[in-house]
Amino acid sequence: MQEHDQHVSPIKSPRQLVVVVALAFLVPIVLIVLVSQLVTGGPHDRDESDPRVLSRIRAFGTVAVADTSAPKGNLAGDAVYAQVCKTCHEAGIAGAPKAGDKGAWTARIAQGQATLVKHAIAGFQGKGGVMPPKGGNADLSDAEVERAVVYMANQVGTGWKEPPVTAGASTTAAAPSAAPGAPTAAPAAAAAAPAATAAVDGKKVFDGNCVACHGAGIAGAPKFGDKAAWAPRIAEGVNTLYSHALGGFTGKAGVMPPKGGNGALSDAEVKAAVDYMVSAAK
């Protein structure tokens, strides 16, 4: 009697082996596809309209541009000092008395507030140093210049009074973002766009800022249109001139405060002024 072999495989040929292996791969894949179709195939929240969905996923708040026509001429003394005067008076550039240096300010304060303010507004050149008109920023009002003078004088204990700020002074601030669904200030934003893209007038920047020093050659500044004075500087390359004008420069020939002493100027405005002066000296 023959003994039955319990370990005989039901696969009798290579073809059967290939079929079994193929089924082992295909059956799970088919099952996965069917399950995924069952889960994701139908639409969700059929009773919810598209506008409601869009309102939920919309970003919270919108950007609004505030009115940029804030009154001018009302900067306080400390603000004018930080924007303009600090460039020279913090480091003593071109003989400027350092802020808080009582010894340097004593003789000047003895001349009186009216004289110091006059020199600051109109400019002054003496043995001790050079003061360009309005610190090189012609956009400042006379009252703003006086406030800056009083602010620096008070650092050494004079107790002078700054001219009062007129009514209606305000600062430009970012408008709060609106809630979802609220109207936006699109017209204001559109109106601001042309100003940002307008070409910079180098002559205008020069007349309002650079002429204070470059018009008369103050503090070693090369005079406007003086080809001999500008030639060695132009030879250094325009990028070097840009760098010195933007970041400031002190050399044997003179001193260039950063942005001509007017920190409110943009880089583009400073470069436009440099281009204008260079073109006039070629």
Describe the structure.
This protein is an all-alpha fold and 282 residues long. The chain is 49% helix and 3% strand. The strands form two sheets. A two-stranded antiparallel sheet has the order 1-2. Strand 1 (124-125) and strand 2 form a beta hairpin. Helix 3 crosses helix 6 (142-154) and helix 5 packs across helix 6 (142-154). 26% of the residues are buried.
List keywords for this structure.
282 residues; two-stranded antiparallel ribbon; two-stranded antiparallel sheet; elongated
Task: Describe the protein's topology.
Elements: H1 14-40, H2 50-57, H3 77-89, H4 102-109, H5 113-122, E1 124-125, E2 130-131, H6 142-154, H7 186-197, H8 202-214, H9 227-235, H10 238-247, E3 249-250, E4 255-256, H11 267-280
Antiparallel strand pairs: 1-2, 3-4
Helix pairs in contact: 3-6, 5-6, 8-11, 10-11
Brief overview:
Helices cover 49% and strands 3% of the residues.
The strands making up the biggest β-sheet line up spatially as 1-2
Rg from Cα: 37 Å
Describe the main β-sheet briefly: 2 strands, antiparallel
Distance between the termini: 121 Å
> What is the mean pLDDT?
75
In helices, the fraction of residues equals 40-55%
Order of helices and strands: HHHHHEEHHHHHEEH
Strand percentage: under 5%
DSSP strand count: 4
Give the low-pLDDT segments: 61-70, 168-197
**Number of distinct helices:** 11
Overall, the morphology is elongated
Structural class: mainly alpha
